[in-house]
Write a structure and sequence with these properties.
Order of helices and strands: EEEHHHEHEHHEHHEHEEEHHHEEHEEEH
Strand order of the largest sheet: 4-10-9-8-7-5-6
CATH topology of the largest domain: Aspartate Aminotransferase, domain 2
Distance between the termini: 36 Å
Low-confidence stretches: none
Bound molecules: pyridoxal-5'-phosphate
CATH architecture of the largest domain: 3-Layer(aba) Sandwich
Strand content: 15-25%
Number of strands: 15
Shape: globular
CATH class of the largest domain: Alpha Beta
CATH superfamily of the largest domain: Type I PLP-dependent aspartate aminotransferase-like (Major domain)
Number of helices: 14
Length: about 450
């Protein structure tokens, strides 16, 4: 019996009763390697002593102060910490309680930026199919996952789409990555022309596409070209790094690897590492200035923005990542993970693509490698892989609908930054067994 409306009403969830480093522990005493950080959240693993100490200390000082009355030392310190390492041009940060709220804030900031400048006619956002930006109505509105949007479509804001930048399925066989990147970015320019540049507010994109595509990085040069197109046409670039940011790809911000800085950038998940609900929207100087010289405010707000406990958690997580040089480990273990995935799945008949960066990897499953044909979506292979992995003491983040929101299966990996070499080996070993078992079960079920 439960009084909770769980995600899946008919599923019996094990109870998490403890955590220790890279492991979560259930009520039966079973240990699970958290190889996906939940959904790319737990970058420091579980029960990290530095974060627990910071939370206890903050609780003893002040647990809550509404931001329309007060600021707090801890929120200001977090702002300093984040801006000290922000993408170039960023001057301020707006603190919220998660990824969807960070995206909502970015969308409203972008609209208000143009209102402050007297450009009231601007009303369109452009984003990409197969992106995920959150589940609140505004974030879902710009999201490109057909399945998540379908039943809410009549109440979502109008949005305009271009294709994702997804080499495995969109690059022509004899096209270079660079040429594909230019071609994919040209779609944005065409869409801006179609809508009229003066009507467009912003282009919204995940730097590395996470949940819906499975850790797909941009083609070489794609994001730089996108940045130029936005600048040339006077529209804002919003990069959503809620999943891929805060060190997940081996640099603190994923866009650093593409040499690009957006006008607004969202982060969450790894920001607080799961120790408290927190997200943030980075604001570029020109956006901030438009507000400061105009209405003098951002017309937005939630009860829990800048919550002191959430700020304390995020500050402790970010200081730990920086002081313990954990991004070096993300890079080293990331290279190991990449090699181990290739070694295990290079010749696997049902693994079509392995892609990612840092400790953020996706494995795309196919029924047939030659034709890239997906498994029948009705079979929900991704769900079977998830339970086969759980049975083997492994948490991974599989998802269906990779190709178009309906067909396609992938598994997302996002292990904690504190992983050692033995943990990476164990993750790939158990993942291989889980994938093989799930596919074998399917075949057995066919007969
Ligand atoms: N943006 C991206 C890229 C995400 O991956 C997610 C969550 O998976 C969100 C936004 C929404 O974040 P939250 O679930 O914290 O609201």
């Amino acid at each position: 019996m439960t009084r909770l409306l769980h995600r899946q009403i008919h599923h019996a969830y094990p109870r998490a009763v403890g955590g220790e480093g890279i492991h979560l522990i259930d009520a039966a005493g079973r240990r699970y390697i958290d190889a996906s950080g939940g959904a790319a959240v737990s970058c420091l693993g579980h029960q990290h002593p530095a974060v627990l100490a910071a939370l206890h200390a903050q609780l003893d000082q002040v647990a809550y102060a509404h931001t329309s009355f007060f600021t707090t030392d801890v929120a200001e310190a977090l702002g300093e910490e984040l801006l000290a390492q922000a993408p170039s041009g960023m001057s301020h940060v707006y603190l919220v309680s998660g990824g969807s709220e960070a995206v909502e804030a970015a969308l409203k900031m972008a609209r208000q930026y143009f209102v402050e400048r007297g450009e009231h006619q601007r009303r369109y956002f452009i984003s990409r199919r197969q992106s995920y930006h959150g589940n609140t109505l505004g974030a879902l509105g710009v999201g490109g996952n057909a399945w998540r949007r379908a039943q809410f479509a009549p109440i979502l804001v109008e949005n305009h789409y271009i294709d994702p930048c997804y080499e495995y399925r969109y690059r022509h066989p004899h096209e270079t990555g660079e040429a594909y990147g230019v071609r994919a970015a040209a779609e944005l320019e065409a869409k801006i022309h179609e809508l009229g540049a003066a009507n467009v507010i912003a282009f919204v994109a995940e730097t590395v596409v996470g949940a819906t595509l499975g850790a797909v990085p941009p083609a070489p040069g794609y994001l730089a070209r996108v940045r130029d197109i936005c600048t040339e046409h006077g529209i804002l670039l919003i990069l959503d790094e809620v999943m891929c940011g805060m060190g997940r790809t081996g640099t603190l911000h994923a866009c650093a690897q593409d040499g690009v800085a957006p006008d607004l950038m969202t982060v969450a998940k790894g920001l607080g590492g799961g120790y408290a609900p927190i997200g943030a929207t980075f604001v570029a100087r020109h956006v901030y200035d438009a507000f400061a010289k105009g209405s003098g405010m951002f017309q937005h707000g939630h009860t829990y923005v800048g919550h002191p406990l959430a700020c304390a958690a995020a500050l402790a997580v970010q200081r730990t990542v920086r002081e313990e040089r954990l991004l070096d480990n993300v890079q080293a273990r990331g290279t190991q993970l990449e090699q181990a995935l290739h070694a295990r799945f290079r010749d696997h008949p049902h693994v079509g693509d392995i892609r990612g960066r840092g400790l953020f990897w996706g494995v795309e499953l196919v029924a047939d490698r030659g034709s890239k044909l997906p498994f029948d979506p009705g079979r929900r292979l991704h769900a079977d892989i998830k339970s086969a992995a759980m049975q083997r003491g492994l948490m991974v983040y599989p998802m269906g609908g990779t190709i178009d929101g309906r067909a396609g299966d992938h598994v997302l990996l996002a292990p904690p930054f504190i992983c050692d070499a033995a943990a990476i080996d164990a993750i790939v070993l158990r993942l291989g067994e889980a994938i093989d078992a799930a596919i074998a079960d399917r075949r057995a079920g066919d007969h």
